[in-house]
Write a structure and sequence with these properties.
The complex is a heterodimer of chains A (about 260) and B (about 325).
Chain A (H helix, E strand, L loop, with lengths): L1 E10 L7 E11 L4 E6 L5 H9 L6 E6 L2 E2 L5 H4 L3 E4 L13 H9 L13 H14 L16 H14 L4 E5 L7 H18 L3 E4 L3 H6 L3 E6 L2 E7 H5 L3 H12 L4 H6 L2
Parallel strand pairs in A: 3-8, 3-9, 6-7, 7-8
Antiparallel strand pairs in A: 1-2, 1-4, 4-5, 9-10
Chain B lengths: L1 H30 L7 H17 L4 H24 L5 H19 L5 E3 L5 H6 L20 H19 L3 H11 L1 H6 L4 H27 L1 E3 L6 H16 L6 H25 L7 H22 L16
The chains are: A alpha/beta (about 260), B mainly alpha (about 325).
Bound molecules: adenosine-5'-triphosphate (ATP) and magnesium ion (MG).
């Protein structure tokens, strides 16, 4: 479903702030793969997701989604294939617009915007039903401004919006990191249900090793702009946190895994 | 006092005309979150195109349409400078505005001021609005031709069209772009296109307003649009301060802008008439009013902050 071949990205090249954030990353995801991504701060996890989403062009390498080469497509054109949830709860929704308006925007992801109505009555009923799944009481607040919602509510809504039109690829960048533990668990729970229901091909960054082990059928760990570990199948099912740390140490020849990763 | 009272209908008429421009400013400033300085030039462009075409015998509505298109073209230029050339929006607007001075002069045959041939009664009769119609029946002009009636209707129709437009998929994508460009792009919205469309729409309205004022005054002056952006902001802000609590619906918010422009004009007229102030102090007065109204919400948030929710600003609803 996703095929990333040897992509590289250096920020601020030729300046004192030069930073090689991706140093040749290749990754192939099969249909329905749910991959968790871990790694220390600055390892390049977000940069990888942003490269796939097309926030800026990569320096070299290719990216294709469902067989379509998207390497040169701008962000808004790639949106046709991709649903996203960001780390910052403010980022994924339009605060000054209503809940239903936000959902209506998401329902038209990848379609040409025309002079047809921005939202129809049938859609409203549909959205109300969908919001019930979240169990946050949002179904009674369709016309509330999203800016009035809590961070957790906004994040759950963004998740729902990302999956509203079945995406070929779902990108989640620490989407529960800014939430309190209880809300985080709830949103993660909703994530699991939504991903399972539609068999979404998913990349989920997390700083929580346990979550990374429990969720998904494959786990990758990034280190200094590369994929240092890639664990799937039976291997992944049997994985423990201790295993993971040990294998990370072997793979990178460093023991900074403990302090860097456990912090999250 | 009688001087002020007799000036009131004229002030309200002018306020309504500037209100059309202010609604254009609302589209860029409030909806797209862009301060667009093209306005100072495109306002005059509207009047210039109108005065030349109408004077050469073109139908009043066609001349208005041409003014609208000319304004839209100015907006397109600013939009392309901003999105294709990567020039910051403010600077892009300033560049277009500067260039428009020459363009406007060229349109007006290199004359700084061109008058409409309204000394002929039949020409005057063809205009949509005129200063003279303010006098009403006692001067021989039918009451329904009063600028407050005509421009009021004109404004109502414009608001209805905008209300419809911002409720469509395309309009919603403009609002999303102004509210959160990251989100908009993630939902597949071409934010550059949305900004260009918004600037085109806005400057079209501004030029229409310019064409109306040209008819009202019976002439177009090269400096007519100077400071227009500030008047537009004043109207937007006054409307917001006074009505934001009661006018939640998007159409009503646009109406608030129009009312804001009327209030602005009435207040300015009052100060000039009652205070016997030289009209050249008008610009200073406007700048002060806008500065004060922009300061109030900022200081309120800074020094009297009560716990507020993260919603930065409230935008029009389309329920
Ligand atoms: N837009 C950017 N401009 C400049 N440098 C950037 C940019 N985005 C990321 N970087 C740098 O690239 C490196 C990788 O950043 P990235 O955000 O991918 O890390 P991460 O693995 O997501 O870390 P974290 O766990 O802290 O989110 C960092 O050194 C970061 O400072
Ligand atoms: Mg990150």
């Amino acid at each position: 479903m996703l095929d990333v071949q040897n992509i590289r990205k250096t920020f601020n090249p030729g300046t004192v702030n030069e930073k090689a954030a991706l140093r040749g990353v290749s990754l192939t995801l099969n249909d329905g793969d749910f991959v968790t991504v871990i790694g220390g701060n600055g390892a390049g996890k977000s940069t990888l997701l942003n490269a796939v989403a097309g926030v800026w062009p990569v320096d070299s390498g290719t990216i294709s989604i469902g067989g379509v080469d998207v390497t040169r497509l701008p962000e808004h054109k790639r949106a046709k294939y991709i649903g996203r949830v960001f780390q910052d709860p403010m980022m994924g929704t339009a605060a000054t617009m209503q809940i239903e308006e936000n959902m209506a925007l998401a329902a038209r992801r990848g379609q040409a915007r025309t002079l047809r109505p921005g939202i129809t009555r049938d859609e409203r009923d549909h959205y109300r039903e969908m919001l019930k799944i979240l169990d946050l009481g949002l179904e009674d607040r369709l016309t509330s401004k999203v800016g009035l919602l809590s961070g957790g509510q906004r994040q759950a809504l963004t998740l729902l919006m990302a999956a509203l039109r079945k995406p070929d690829l779902l990108l989640l960048d620490e989407h529960t990191a800014a939430l309190d533990p209880k809300t985080a668990a709830k949103v993660l729970d909703a994530t699991e249900r939504i991903v399972q229901k539609d068999h979404l091909t998913t990349l989920m960054i997390t700083h929580n090793m346990k979550d990374a082990i429990v969720h998904g059928n494959r786990l990758i760990m990034m280190y200094e702009g590369r994929i240092a570990l890639d664990i799937s199948g039976e291997d992944k099912k049997k994985l423990t946190v201790e295993d993971l740390l040990a294998r990370f140490g072997q793979a990178t020849g460093s023991d900074e895994a403990d302090d860097k990763l456990l912090l999250g | 006092m009688t001087g002020f009272l007799s000036a009131l209908p004229g002030a309200a008429s002018q306020g309504l005309i500037w209100g059309v421009m202010a609604i254009g400013v609302y589209i860029t400033y409030k909806i797209l979150d862009i301060a667009d300085l093209t306005v100072d030039g495109s306002f005059c462009t509207g009047g210039a195109v109108f005065v030349m075409l109408f004077s050469s015998g073109v139908n009043v509505w066609l001349a208005m349409l041409a003014a609208l298109l000319a304004g839209m073209l100015a907006g397109l230029v600013t939009g392309l400078l901003h999105t294709v050339c990567g020039i910051p929006a403010i600077l892009a607007g300033i560049l277009t505005q500067l260039g428009l001075y020459s363009v406007n002069m060229a349109i007006m045959d290199m004359k700084a001021s061109v008058a409409l041939p309204i000394t002929q009664a039949d020409t005057l009769d063809k205009l949509l609005v005129s200063l003279r119609f303010v006098q009403g029946p006692k001067a021989g002009y039918p009451a329904w031709r009063h600028p407050i009636v005509v421009v009021g209707l004109f404004t109502a129709v414009l608001i209805a069209i905008l209300y419809w437009y911002f409720g469509t998929e395309l309009g919603a994508s403009l609002r999303a772009t102004g509210s959160n460009p990251n989100m908009a792009r993630a939902q597949g919205i071409d934010t550059d296109l949305a900004k260009v469309l918004g600037l085109i729409l806005s400057n079209g309205m501004v030029a229409l307003s310019g064409a109306l004022l040209c008819q009202y005054n019976g002439a177009n002056d090269i400096n007519v649009g100077r400071g227009a952006i500030v008047i537009g902001l004043a109207a937007v802000i006054i409307g917001e301060v006074l009505f934001s609590k009661v006018f939640i619906n998007f159409a009503l918010k646009l109406l608030a802008v129009s009312i804001g422009a009327i209030i602005y004009y009435v207040v300015i007229t009052a100060v000039l008439k009652l205070g016997n102030l030289n009209a050249n102090y008008l610009k200073l007065l406007t700048a002060l009013v806008v500065a004060v109204f922009l300061t109030i919400p900022y200081w309120k948030g800074k020094y009297f902050s009560k716990p507020v929710n993260p919603a930065k600003k409230e935008e029009g609803s389309h329920a």
